[in-house]
Design a protein that fits this description.
The protein has two domains: 87 residues, Cytochrome C biogenesis protein (Helicase, Ruva Protein, domain 3, Orthogonal Bundle), CATH 1.10.8; 29 residues. The protein contains seven helices and no strands. About 4% of the residues have low confidence. 63% of the residues lie in helices and 0% in strands.
Length: 152
């Protein structure tokens, strides 16, 4: 049973890069449209309907027909229109902070929450010690009087 799981996992890992490589080598217009912006209206190209967006689509279709890869087309767009045409920030250099900060913030928040829960559960005392909480004698007498009045 364990060997079958290992074999299935290995097959899944080996099968996964195929679509990514195919997408890189043979991109489609919808794939690229979702990753770039219309330079005029500052909207994702797949949501823009302006004349500049149509010109960008025609440009991308031409490059796809010429056999350019996805990364080559994105680089040509950056060369022609500037880095702001890409929807996602670069993953290297100073711009990598845009990717790192949200992840680091999520991890830090999870650690703070875990520490808070740990402290909260530690501060409640041991529930299994069997000793009832101590009550002041005046309060205990008052409770007994109230219970006696309630029962009668």
């Amino acid at each position: 049973m364990r060997a079958a799981i290992v074999v299935l996992a290995a097959l899944a890992i080996l099968a996964s890069p195929g679509p990514a490589i195919a997408s890189e080598n043979h991109p489609t217009l919808p794939e690229i449209e979702g990753e770039v912006m219309c330079v005029t209206c500052q909207e994702p190209l797949d949501m823009s309907g302006g004349p500049q967006a149509d010109r960008e689509r025609d440009l991308i279709r031409g490059w796809i027909a010429q056999g350019y890869t996805k990364s080559q087309i994105e680089q040509k767009l950056v060369d022609q229109f500037g880095r702001q045409i890409l929807l996602s920030p670069p993953t290297s250099g100073f711009d990598a902070i845009a990717w790192i900060l949200p992840i680091a913030g999520g991890i830090a928040a999870a650690l703070v929450l875990a520490y808070g829960v740990w402290r909260w559960t530690r501060g409640r005392g041991d529930p299994g010690d069997g000793a009832p909480p101590r009550i002041e004698p005046e309060l205990e007498q008052r409770l007994d009087d109230e219970l006696a009045r309630f029962e009668s």
